[in-house]
User: Fold these one by one.
Assistant:
Number 1:
Amino acid sequence: MDTHWRFTAAPTPLGAIGIVWGDAGIVETWLHAGTVDRARAHIRRAFPAAAEATPPASVAAALGDIAALLDGQPRSIDSAELDMTSIPDFDRRVYEVARTIPPGRTMTYGEIADALGEEPMRARDVGQALSRNPFAPIVPCHRVVAAGGRLGGYSAPGGAATKRRLLEIEGAAIVAPPMQPGLFD
């Protein structure tokens, strides 16, 4: 486990974002509807040993891509190196598939389960894994929807409304209204 965590927090058009990284890559991104100070406070609680620092080029590039996405410019954040050493194997596999979804496209929870060679009933497990995603929007869980094109849940501030906004930015076809709250939250 990397005990030399560093972090930065910055404003975006949808609120503040915090990024924590270590020698093996990004450990967490945290979108928050509030201020940079609130993002810093969250990170300091979650990662008390982390020191605020100027991000290295790779983290700064990811931060720039995230800010651009949240400002209305469709982006994949493919080059960001993620430290998944503490991520359970199933979740890691789900995140790897989700990262292959290009801007403007979506997959269903069931399609990800199928891509993993899992039982279709594991779609709920895929949803649960995505609800624990510590790397949004680098792992673009907003591009994963429920069967029939329904949005499903989204754990970032604003919930399904934020998910819908990100999909609209990317030009994804949104077929159905949001699901009832709580199904994949």
Number 2:
Amino acid sequence: MMNAFLRSVLVLSVLGLSASAFAVPLAPRHYLENATTSVSSFQGYNFDGVIALSNCSGSLVRFQTSQADDKAMVLTNGHCLANSMGGGMPKPGVVIVDQPVSRSLYVLNPVDGNKIGSIQATKILYATMTKTDMTLYEVSETYREIETKFSVHAFTLADRYPSVGEGIEIVSGYWRRGYGCKVDGIVNELREAGWTMFDSIRYSRPGCETIGGTSGSPIISTGSREIVGVNNTGNESGQKCTMNNPCEVDANGTITFEKGLSYGQQTTWVYGCLTSDRKIDLNLADCKLAKPTAAETPRKPSSNWPSKNR
């Protein structure tokens, strides 16, 4: 999911970036792996803990109770699973839990965002595009090992929603750039094509006009190491509730939409699903995350995903 047409014709022609909201960028892989700085680099943002994926952005994250010798986690969007396992995005209603995966994730230099190494995702702890748009990967390395090797640190996932008017920063590992604005509102329900998300985060303008490739970027409370959500979509052409054109639905069922509005998804619900030893248990009484049925949880996730990527 990602919003807004890229304004520069030069960037479009050179990189072949797809501009659709759900779309992942089409820049060749060697661009990501070999680039020292992006044409879109934006100075002044801290990349400590920001992660680059082959098609999206992400962040190294911890729970509030995580320990240094726990296996580390990386947060990105559910739709960023596309292309990582030979499949597309999880269909509405599909939830993927505790599934093995092999995916390289790129660690960035905190100061300039240059790639300094990689870590290996070995498990999808949780992934969905239903109710939220989130993937949590478990990686083979511990937090201590990553800090020792790369001198980077994990963000902490907040157990709260951001406040309206709160300053936020959205830092993209894919493009090595950042955005700054405020929370404009918490959206009761956000609809896009067949997907429905709840308690979404709407950004103020100007400042957070995010583009393709910033999908999965952390939404960071300004001046902190606290992640309050994950960046994912926006209304590109002013259409109503269609692909790349999400609409808002209030508690009374009234639908509104506006071209150019961008959004992220809440991640705080994960805390209602955590056991005392920091495992995700969707059967806990306070767990609000989408739950799978037997038919919705494939043993080989790519076999049930659509072949068309966005």
